[in-house]
Amino acid sequence: MSRPIRKLIDENGIRTDGRKVDELRPVKITIGVLSNADGSAYIEQGKNKILAAVYGPREVHPRHLALPDRALLRCRYHMAPFSVEERKSPAPSRRETELSKVIREALEPTIFLEQYPRTSIDLFIEVLQADGGTRCAGTTVASLALADAGIPMRDLVVACASGKVDGQVVLDLNDIEDKEGEADVPIAFAPNLNAITLLQMDGLLTDEEFEKALDLALEGCRRIHALQKETLKAKYVTAKEEVEEE
Amino acid sequence: MSSIMVSRIRQRQIAQLIASGKRLDERGLTDYREIKIESGVIGKAEGSALAYIGKTEVLAGVKIETGEPFTDRPNEGALTVNAEFVPLASPEFEAGPPGEESIELARVVDRGIRESKAIELEKLCVIPGKKVFVVFVDVYVLNHDGNLIDTASLASLAALLNTKMFNYELVDEEVKILPGFTQLPVVNYPVSITFAEINGKLVMDPGLDEEEVMDARLTVTFEKSGRLCAMQKSGRGTFTKEQIVEAVKMGQQKAEEIRKKVI
Amino acid sequence: MEIFYENKQLVTPGDLLAEGDYAAGNNAYKAGNKVYASRLGLVNYEEKRVSVVALNAFYVPTVGDLVIGKVTEVNINSWTVDINAPYAALLQASDVLNRFKPQRDDLSRIFDVGDLILAKIVTYDRTRDPLLTVREPGLGKVSRGQIVKITPTKIPRVIGKKGSMINMLKKEAGCKIVVGQNGLVLVDGANPEDERLAITAIHKIEEEAHTSGLTDRITEMLKREREATK
Predict the structure, then answer these.
(1) I want to staple C198 with a disulfide (CB 3.0 to 4.6 A). Which of A130, B90, C153, C173 is the partner?
(2) Coil, strand or helix: which one is B77?
(3) What is the mean pLDDT of residues B78-103?
(4) Which of the following CATH numbers is that of domain C146-229: 3.30.1370.10, 3.20.20.80, 3.40.50.720, 3.30.1330.90?
């Protein structure tokens, strides 16, 4: 076997980073971190450090890309060269192109694009440090950046991955588990709409294992969603007081 | 008509039909169009196959070269899948570097082959850590009438099954070609099944018209013993958990049927 | 008929606000018989309508609004104006010149790139960019003063109930203040210190918009500062 054989879960059910199989990595979110962007948010999940920013709705450049009946959502998922162990070339890779697409499609269903025809909403996700599950953390933080920009949405989108490691279905894979495990299932979810907006899988899973992984990832999503809401609200702590209008 | 944009009337027609369990071409919701596979069509390639699903036509060619292994897999051969949406295949395709759709397709097809361990990559090691065989699968879309992913997966699998590697010996760490060929060691047969979601219903093997009106798309890939090895949701719409579980069940059955057309 | 929050509670996009025979008002939407929030804000329940007072939203052009804009392009027979909205606005030459001749009249002599103007929105619909007019008295080029940019949703607070806040600001800071609905406020004082004071007050209003007793606190702050500089 050419893959390094290493136990990723020990006899006590503890993983390489000390977590149990259904534990999320610690998550910390801050909203409104960049002054120029219309909306922004930052997330740390385990060793992941990801920044998301939104510009828009604004006029589309180049003009010919404008859609007559809705806003154009553009998304760029990009990893900084120093974000991974071996320096990554700054040029967009095929993986980044694919992830930019799936993340855009994860957020698109929730945005009221039809309200702003002929504009673009530009979303930038920069992975400053990567440790597995960046497309999920990136989606979670991008949805908050959109909310911070005041863009009307049907729901927030939250994302989380589950997978199979050492024969067990496990929540929120870190980088080692992602690389050496048996399967990876990233999903994104709009909780109030009960809609799955991103779903991928690679590895080998029976249909039962897949369903178990799906349920576990959805549970992870619900937990992170609670944190998303809490963080959004915390930005306006004094808002319990009166609002006077003209 | 040179534009493939579907008129609103047609869009409504399709959506209404599907709501009542029917499709424009009278197929059932889980029926595939006619599948045809021709192997060995490009003699100069190490392997090749032309796959048709209805009028969608995809040619896959396999070339094998020597190269350096990946640093984290020093004793294995390498696989790379590339897809080209050739401009002649559709009025919507433009010449130029691969767009996000073609990159996504290539990566989904790649995952099917890679995660199912279809190719015994350890057998493609020439000098451990230094030289391995690299299997290039190039997917060439020739006519787009919907469901490029499944057609491309079938073409790729058939091409790999058709692939012969030259015999060789090592002389001073250089590969010297000998007469005769060996079949590429292919031991698994991944098959992808793609669904379109239209008006809340799941429809297998969407035709081009159906893709124009669909809300979202889901591809599920199964290896020979029925396990999932790849999945990809794409498009602006969403799925419920129940729809996904149902798609996996239906897909598993269908994959077995379709696999028989290739092996 | 069911509601799920208390009035003025903070809600986030996607929160289920009510179920049943309610209409969806601002920053809320209805799906089936459920009303959800579409923006972060304070929920407002009325008898038959649920809306959300958004805490953070960009300006969407509304016909009749007074706006402050910046000229970004001089075209053959119009000016393109940035009004801090998703769409650039247009001011046509015919609005300013009665008999406009493109060959003879050089529009940049009237308004040039970088000029600030006070204008009103005349028309706006989904298919075209908003159209401006400067024909009313008081509108036109801004030649002096400073501009403050705040979140458009806080503009009503800067004006206050029946103008209470803005009238107080003008008096206590000794400045002429014009409030654009698009989140821009023009402050024109006798000296830069007065303008700076007014600007500080406006930013404070933006930050504390949802607190009570704000008008009094701002009044006190202004009185204090003005005393200090005398």
Answers:
(1) C173
(2) coil
(3) 96
(4) 3.30.1370.10
C2-54 maps to which CATH number?
2.40.50.100
DSSP label at residue A181: S
| A214 vs B101, B111, B241: nearest CB | B241
Chain A residues lying within 8 Å of B227, measured CB to CB? 204-207
Under 8 Å between Cβ of B252 and B227: no
Q: Of C134, C129, C75, C73, which is closest to residue C102 (Cα–Cα)?
A: C75
- The domain made up of C66-142 has a fold known as OB fold (Dihydrolipoamide Acetyltransferase, E2P) (2.40.50)
Instruction: Check A119 against C87: CB less than 8 A apart.
Output: yes
C122: its two tokens: 């005349």
Q: Please state, rounded to an integer, the average pLDDT across all residues of chain B.
A: 94
Instruction: Write down the pLDDT at residue C229.
Output: 73
pLDDT at B6: 63
Sorted by where each begins, the domain ranges of chain A are 27-233
Q: Is C62 on the interface with A (CB under 8 A)?
A: no
- Residue range C91-102: average pLDDT? 83
CB-CB under 8 Å, B252 with A207:
yes
Contact B243, B196 (CB under 8 A): no
Q: Are B186 and B119 in contact (CB under 8 A)?
A: yes
Chains B+C touching (3+ CB pairs under 8 Å): no
- In this predicted model, what pLDDT tens digit does every residue of A31-56 receive, in sequence order? 999 999 999 999 999 999 999 999 99
Q: List, as ranges, residues 221-240 from B with C-beta within 8 Å of A.
A: 223, 226-240
Query: How much is the pTM?
Result: 0.93
Mean pLDDT of chain A: 93
The reply to whether residue A195 touches residue B240, judged by beta carbons under 8 angstroms, is yes
Give the domain A27-233 fold: Ribosomal Protein S5; domain 2 (3.30.230)
Given this structure, which CATH class describes domain B26-259? alpha beta
**Chain B residues 64-103 with CB within 8 Å of chain A:** 71-76, 98, 100-101, 103
Q: Which residue of A has its CA nearest to B69?
A: A2
